[in-house]
What does this fold into?
Amino acid sequence: MSTEAVLVRKGAYYDSVQLMRVSRALADTPGVEAAMVAMATDLNVTVIRDLGFTVPEAGPGDLLIAVRAHDTKAAVAEADRQLTTLERPGTATSQPPLTTRSAAARGPADLVLVSVPGEHAFCEAHDAVLAGLPVMIFSDGVPVAQERWLKELAEERDVLVMGPDCGTASIGGVGLGFANVLSPGPVGVVAASGTGAQQVTSLLDWAGAGVSHILGVGGRDLSAEVGGLSTLRALRMLDEDPATDLIVLISKPPAPEVARLVEEAVAGLRTPVMSALLPTDLTEAAEQALRVLGRSVPEWPSWPGALREASGKTLKGIYAGGTLSLEAAAVAGQGDFVDYGDDAYTRGRAHPMIDPTLRVEALSRAGGTDVVLMDVVLGHGADPDPAASLVPAIAHTPAAVVVSLVGTLGDPQDLHRQAAALRAAGAAVFVSNAQAARHARSLV
Amino acid sequence: MTVSTRARRTRIHVTGAASTAVRPVLESPRRPARVIAAFPAGVYLEVRTDLEPSVIAVITGAAIRLPNSALLAGPLPHVTVGDEASVGDRAIDLGPLSLSVRRWWDPAPSLAPAEPGSLAGAAAILARPAEPRPGLDGNGAVASLSAACATGWLLGVVTAAEQLIGLGPGLTPSGDDVLAGLLVTLRHVGRAARTERAVWLADWLGATVTFDARTRTTPLSATLLHCAARGEASPEVLAVLRGVTGEQALEPALNRLRRLGHTSGADLAQGVAIGVRAVLSLGGRR
Amino acid sequence: MSPLSAPSNVITAGAGLLDEALAAQAVPTTPVDWRPPLPGTAEALVKVLADPRRQAANELAARRLTSARPYLVGVRRASEVLPSGTFLHAGPPITWERASGPMRGALIGAMLLEGLAGDEHDAAVGLAAGEIALRPCHEHASVGPMAGVVSPSMWMFEVRDEEHGGTAYCSLNEGLGKVLRYGAYGPEVLDRLRWMDTVLGPALAATLERTGPIDLRSLIAQALQMGDELHNRNRAATSLLLRELAPAVVESAPARAAEVLRFINGNDHFFLNAGMAAAKVSTDAARDIPGSTMVVAMARNGTDFGVQVSGLGGRWFTGPAGVPDGLYLGSYGPEDANPDIGDSTITETSGLGGFAMAASPAIVRFVGGEVADAVRATRSMYEITLAEHPAYQIPGLGFRGTPVGIDVTLVARTGLLPVVNTGIAGRVAGTGQVGAGLVKPPAEAFTSALLALSGAVSDPFE
It folds into this structure.
């Protein structure tokens, strides 16, 4: 007979990915029926309640441990053991840097990657800019006024600020955040959208074209408030980069006054610039880039569904990538789309590219008359084996499932293995999100 | 029926980065390989393949990033010369490790167009005597090579190169290092300065030195000549080339290069100096 | 590095997963051990960090603090410095009603010493009635250890900053055991103070006239290399000072030289008070720089722990003084201890004391713990300070300068509070010293200073 326990640890902080790993390890412990260890954000409290637990009063700065097990005491002890191993062991003479300022003062770094919760990101990014280091702000939820302020300071200090909410960047082949393993090549990307950049660059990689750099600028950079400061700087940097022969700019349509600035800047560059304004068919954008480079456009690989080609009535998009979701909605021209990577779903929990829980739930709610369209994004930082958690849900749903599998052959997840597993579970798989959307539409 | 008596070892999966030069070998079907040299910061593997590079350097962050390198994220396993290994199917198996690549770097990135005047200044800096002296300082064949390059006289270049291949002691003989420095300089600086004749010379010289390099010098040096013929080099050499075209400061980069190895860095720098002089003089007679 | 080439080392602040993804690509990283800031400070931090004056102001403050050149120039009777009808005391302002046992004991002792009360009871009544104005030492260019009580017939070290021209004072050290600064006021305490008034003070004043100014910066730098941290261990510094003074003492007060020298020699902490005045004059040089978030004073009155910040003038920000954690003398225990007291935290404020623990392996015998703890304490303080002291260096850390210039924004961001070494006073008036150890300052003193800084700047985001 199992009992349950919900404990509140006041003011104990852990990052959401670490907690997801602890939750998983705990749930896999023999004798444990259900377990979740998470910061007590509204979203996480709801999820824990949905698992049937009664949650006591707690705030987003507190840690919740919820277990249902034969021996809750042992389970909680196991949770504590797991949490203790997360603490970095300190040795007598080493003092880890506690701020970006301190880390920068220690020497060798030439780039800063900030992914602390959004309300605290300013402090770390500010340290980076003051130290004269370029910074990628992966965090979302940074107020736009702070973004503008940081980027103005960055102009003074002559450094690039990527983000906030910059999910993807790649500099000289080094993938930062969610990026794919890409071959070096002639295309430089300036992207206000991380997953948009991932789709375009992974297709370019498939076509053998390769990528020099991806400079993310954050979704709001081209707004009137921010004024495109990072976009303009990124364009200049790519123009000066000898490895870049073509620049692709991926963004929502800029604010009119910013659009004018960008046009003027582009006119002054030696390197040709191609814009892909969202929502747009990103596959078409990649193909156009290939044509500009004088390269041939290949057949984009796909693995048609093995089992259910049955049609449905309603198209449901359950996406991890916001831009991919918008693109698919635009291409399909119908259906209900939810972007699980949105702020509302990521407060105090890991991004759906890492934590499949919310989308697995969404799959379990799909009915026999639904066609489910979803993205699975591979690459650095993403779930090391996304098929493992999605396959059972895909196999069980009565709905038809179409997957847009964004990634390259070099990605750590082994794209062929992922495609085969998803296909065996009954999904139709496409490396082009636009093609996936068209296929899904054809099933409705 | 044969029964394998060797127990299957469970492999430790590790990741790292690699030069795109080794990508063709890595992505081919698996081939046997053998450890031909082992140092604390790097292990050289000779792969049984017709592809080049056929020697792959598996290194840690402390080693020189040769153009045929795969860089491990962690420590090297303990292996000794003669140990078996394998390369292919997207992995390098060495000792207990199986290395897969999570990042590729380009060992032959293009240079920015050369700033006017920067080449002449660079040639003067490169010509200054410095320590350590190159291994073939004062050698007649080097002087002939330099003179023939400056006039674009292919037969003279090839004749001198023939004498230099494999000349000198060690894993990378001085003669080969001079030729490698020259080859990458003619190709990259030639292109950056729009001196077609230099690039043309690089093509022919490259074809000459790679033709029978495997029989003329050490396996590692032969592979590095193949790389150089394609314009592939270590970051230290590429930094000097960027210094030559004015993208960054030349002297610090040159000092770093010259400090590599016993005389390897100085030999490479000598090749670069010959190449820059050649590009300058060939550019004048287009 | 050209603008766009593969990063050679990436600082990662936040998700460990993104750090691991870089490591998997064989890219070296410098991970930040990030924690959320102290509760309630997130908004203020952003505002204060964005204050355009801050960086230059802090650079100036740290430069002034570390470039001060304190010289011991004289010894003066407090009556020359003190306003009439006033006693000074340690820490932020306090009333008789809120004063703790040792503070009350020291004030009573001062009343008796000055002949303002016939006995202990009269003294307490007079003090409660407000017959004497009680003012913090810090408001009068002074500092005092423990209770820090200064009355007119006490003598004070006079230290001048030859770089910036400031002057600071600190009373003369009475020695250990039953002493006024620990709240004792028995006859032997008062007798000693009278001897100091009539013999020690005048002798030292004459001595310093003969020696001329003594360079305390250089003396402190030497003492650090001889195993002092200059708060709880002053043995080397006292010896060095005694060496400077001895011949001149003999010359200027031949009749009293033996007892004066014996007194100084018998007290390993004799230098502490001169060092505190040196620290005070150095931190005062960094005061009143608009926009600076650097701490210029930390002080306790036995009830409250207070800090002052360069950019906020003479305002005190306080929290309850904690009880030190350490080793107790004889049969005393934590229940006998008074909350933290004294201006001696000026040493930590200037990069000495707890901040220089790594220089003083022997200190672990006074405060408990292992030598490694002392090294760890110093290393951790670099995380909350603005500079490294150019003259005060630690041999064991490769002659690295001590961490100096506490920044309230860094305290709030890291949650790391200054490490303070201290003596422990008995809680009952008249007991004296009961131990020594480490004390944790209250976080709210720093967070309220930060909130005040944020209240003083206009919103940069509007």
In short: Chain A has three domains: 3-86, 100-292, 302-443.
